[in-house]
Design goal:
The strands form 3 sheets. This protein has a 7-stranded mixed β-sheet with strand order 1-12-11-8-13-3-2, with helices on both faces. The protein has a 4-stranded parallel β-sheet with strand order 6-5-4-7, sandwiched between helices. It has a two-stranded antiparallel sheet with strand order 9-10. Helix 4 crosses helix 5 (106-115) and helix 14 (317-329) packs across helix 15. Strand 9 (251-252) and strand 10 (255-256) form a beta hairpin. It is globular, with a radius of gyration of 20 Å. With 377 residues, it is of the alpha/beta class. It has 15 helices and 13 strands.
């Protein structure tokens, strides 16, 4: 499947920003993910695969064979996929620092980390911070989570409920990341951050690798429901960590699907970088899709997104809100970031994405329902 000539897309997508890369269909990733990650997750307290939900009414409306939504609102009791990356990234980073084998138990790793007096640090715009705090709770070590000043109180409270220390930064997400790195470096801390920069790339890569469990689950479920592999995968993008995992998984010699990345229109750092041809930091606005409110893409994700994404688009708060309402009418409760892929699919439609009546579309719904200020019509 290839995308329609991008020169014609502006007329097809009514005022919708979209960037296409026709050469992406032939790009493949050579990166290999550690095969033991899924088994690691299976040993965590409360692990179970999250459901893949069929949306036949959506499939009929856009004239494709199947639209299937991976519902990460059921991931542990955290309502988000981020714990998959935070847990594996923390585990790998601690075993590396403490010189322990990858067979060490969570209990023994926690005992050794406490003896070394290690605190976990990260910055977050939402779910990653809570995930790091949950991993710290499982390890019985301290967590220090820095959050931007525009984070809503309910999100802060969910992070604090994991017994983490919350620090509010008078600035945006990028500034919170900077302060988290500085504080971890100045103490006996371990920075577990899901965005990379040239001097900090190993731990973000491990975090990305952790998301592979969700994608392996999805593959098995798609085959059970549709008896064929996905033709298109649609997913939200903040700094690009999930995008990096999706590209690694779906753009390889053994499987290939077209990929549509979705940003909040208030924080289109990927779209602007694609237009300029290099990483471009931007100022963002407030958005109900707070997990996507990032101003700079990850340095390790960037070259893969630049070369491997078939299309990138943006959705507004109102479009995400309407998609949440549609899913609620179907008995599915998700959050603004989780609804963004459905909003994008319905706005862009099947034709520009090269979909047919037999196509299988997978939407990665990354978070469950939460409180937010409803946008005005």
């Amino acid at each position: 499947m290839t995308l329609e000539d991008p020169r014609h897309l502006a007329n097809l997508i009514r005022d919708q920003h979209i960037y296409t890369n026709p050469s992406a269909h032939s790009w493949t990733s050579q990166y290999k993910v550690d095969s033991q990650i899924e088994e690691f997750h299976r040993k965590l307290p409360g692990y179970a695969p999250t459901p893949l939900v069929s949306l036949p009414s959506v499939a009929k409306r856009i004239s494709v064979g199947h639209v299937l939504m991976k519902d990460e609102s059921h991931r542990f009791d955290l309502k988000a996929f981020k714990i998959l990356g935070a847990s594996w990234g923390t585990y790998r980073a601690l075993t590396e620092r403490l010189g322990l084998p990858l067979t060490v138990s969570i209990e023994e790793l926690g005992r050794r980390a406490r003896k070394a007096d290690i605190t976990l640090f990260c910055a977050t715009d939402g779910n990653h911070g809570r995930a790091v705090a949950r991993m710290a709770k499982w390890l019985d070590v301290k967590a220090h989570i820095l959050v931007p000043s525009n984070m809503d109180k309910s999100t802060q409270q969910r992070i604090a409920s994991e017994d983490a220390q919350i620090e509010i930064v008078e600035g945006d997400y990028d500034l919170a990341v900077k302060y988290a790195a500085e504080k971890a470096s100045a103490s006996n801390g371990l920075l577990v951050q899901d965005t990379a920069w040239p001097a900090y790339e190993e731990i973000p890569r491990w975090i990305v690798d952790g998301y592979s469990t969700m994608l392996h689950e999805t593959d098995r479920q798609v085959l059970e429901i549709a008896a064929r592999r996905a033709d298109l995968v649609v997913f939200p993008v903040g700094v690009g960590s999930l995008a990096q995992a999706v590209l690694t998984h779906y753009k390889n010699p053994n499987r290939s699907a077209a990929l549509l990345a979705v940003e909040a229109d208030a924080a289109p750092c990927l779209l602007e970088s694609l237009k300029s041809g290099s990483i471009t930091s931007i100022s963002t606005r407030d958005t109900i899709m707070c997990g996507l409110n990032c101003g700079t893409v990850s340095s390790t994700a960037w070259p893969m997104m630049r070369d491997g994404l078939d299309a990138t688009t943006t959705v507004t708060d109102l479009e995400s809100h309407h998609a949440m309402g549609e899913l609620r009418s179907l008995g599915i409760s998700v959050g603004p970031c989780g609804a963004a892929p459905l909003a994008a699919l319905e706005i862009v439609g099947a034709t520009p994405l090269g979909l047919t009546s037999d196509s299988v579309v997978v939407l990665l719904c990354t978070e469950g329902s939460r409180d937010y200020v409803h946008p005005v019509e």
